[in-house]
Amino acid sequence: MKVYDTKEIRNVGIVGHGHAGKTSLVSAMLFDAGATNRLGRVDDGTTTTDYDEDEIARKLTIISSLAYCEWNGTKINILDTPGFAAFILDAKAALRACDSALVVVDAVSGVEVQTEKAWSYAEEFGIPRLIVVSKMDRERADFEQAVAGITETFGRAAVPIQMPIGREHGFKGVIDLIHMRAHNYEADGSGKATEGDVPAELRAAAEAAREKIIDVVAETSDALVEKYFNDGTLSDEDLIPGIKAAVTERRLFPILVASGIPNIGIQPLLSSLVELAPAPDELGPVKGHPSPESDEEIEREEKDIAPFSALVFKTVADPFAGRINVFKIFSGHVKSDATVYNITKNTNERLGPLHVMQGKALEKVAEAHAGDIIAVTKLRETHTGDTFSDKAAPIVYETVHFPRPAVAFAITAKTRSDEDKLSQALHKMLEEDLALRFDREPQTNEFLLSGSGQTHVEVAVNKLKRRYGVEVELHPPKVAYLETFRGRAEIVGRHKKQTGGRGQFAEATCVFEGLPRGGGFEFVDKIFGGAIPQNWRPAVEKGIKDAAARGAIAGYPMVDFKVELIDGKFHAVDSDDLSFQMAGRKAFRTAIERVKPVLLEPVMNVEITAPQEASGDILGDINSRRGRVQGMDTKGNQAVVKAQVPLSEMLSYQSTLNSITGARGSYTMELDHYAEVPALIAQKVIHQAQEEGRIRPTEEE
Ligand SMILES: Nc1nc2c(ncn2[C@@H]2O[C@H](COP(=O)(O)OP(=O)(O)OP(=O)(O)O)[C@@H](O)[C@H]2O)c(=O)[nH]1
Ligand SMILES: [Mg+2]
Fold it and tell me: What separation in Å is there between the alpha carbon of 23 and the centre of ligand 2?
């Protein structure tokens, strides 16, 4: 396998809404560049990048994968990313390693919800973007309308640098507006094209479109403006460096046009990536920290001569090769069998052979330069998110931060043997998929598997079974309620015990007062003088906290209240730490008999995306779930509904959403706040808690 210099590398993340045609486009890129010898099809399960069994079965991308091709002497590393809502977060993880994104927009549907998501990820990382309007061969494909939608959403910096020739069944090629050449494709899907002049009937439109590019490019270059006025036009040699600079500086987002399945427009697309997308060292220095603990920011040039550094941004669990770690070299270079320093784990790792990835296939390569993306196997300690760094020039890169997963399920193993294998298998899967989470919910004692949506969690469960032979069941999770009270009470908590020898004595006078939501727990020592010796006052706090953790009415932790310790009594011989803890507990229990404890429930911010025609039903359903609709947006033919709904009403929401939308809806949710449970519902929860034995009698009296 050939070794490429930094300048000869492009790292491109293919992103966009689900079904936009990303994987099909990648398939055609690989085929036309000669990296594969047949045109893989998503619908036949034969693409290079959707190789996972679940991806083949579902005909969509679940997790990003890597491929590469060579075009005009340049290696294009392609990261094909998922576009469906449940998997889109993985596109973010992939973009961390990219120097540009190719945003794919369906020529019929236009800009969609996840197009904007993907765009926002690219924005977050500050990477340049090219846009490609895909599926021009589809019925009702409309380039102008798609472009209008793109500029409306992403601004006027998005400008076509290509035009389609024909549309729908008649789509047969593209006009390159920079070089003013037409590429006419054969109708057999072979990707063969002849180059010629712009057809006469499209000439005027093409020239007008070219002017728009010149407008943007000339804006920042006086020399170009002058040349343009003198000559009346700009040659492609003048234009290309200007466009490239504008793309790199994110002043211009060129719009191209291509279709993967009929294999049209792919070569000009590849050429544009080589010509206009930045090489790894052209985006300015990368930022990092001098050590894993440090917040200080330092910079590193993405140059080959700089000391070695790389970020492990992805891990693949391969049934044959075992764990594959994929890293992007941010600076310096590395050879096979090198020993590198994992600065995150403070350990050395011997890399073994270096590889490039072509879908699931690994190909050995002797060395690699700054900017390249490399896979290695069998590392001992290295995980996703770790940085390799030259020990003498330490730098640590930030890994991608994910929001808390939106949808959680309680997970239980089917059999004892499944239980034994479960946590190890899940551990491997979590490393592959950073948007997945597995943890124990302390309030309800359940193990939760959470992801970006129900489909995400179901796919994970399927993989557990298929790949690791572990069978589990999913249940709606129990709701983690809390308790609190309103009002105020002054209580004397007294503990006294006389059993033969030395007795126990403590007295603590406390004022209990409810706090607003989110107030947590506050303990204020207000004793002046020595009513209780200083060293026993924390014991009172501990006693109250312990008692509060067990709740008052349904066994859920009591929160949002303040306790002021204002007075007390002690005995020179009989008082001790434990006695004051007991006094604290008694004060708490007496207090909750006086104030009125109430139950609190988690209320979620829910965002539902579904076809517009379903929005009426969705709103009605949300109302019936005690939900409050906060707003509604439309994006193309999709409606995005935002609402606040108690978690207890959302436990099996996906199945309702499926029946309302014919399985075309998805939702995400996150905790917003806790709110008081209405009395009737609270009674049910309390009753349930009693049945489950959550309310345990206290042991000490
Ligand atoms: N007519 C037409 N259909 C296409 C084209 N490209 C893809 N499709 C179809 O659109 C569907 C989705 O294509 P994919 O390539 O899997 O789209 P994707 O963007 O990778 O989808 P996700 O990975 O799920 O986000 C498939 O059924 C394809 O056959 C195209 O150029 N023309
Ligand atoms: Mg795909």
Answer: 4
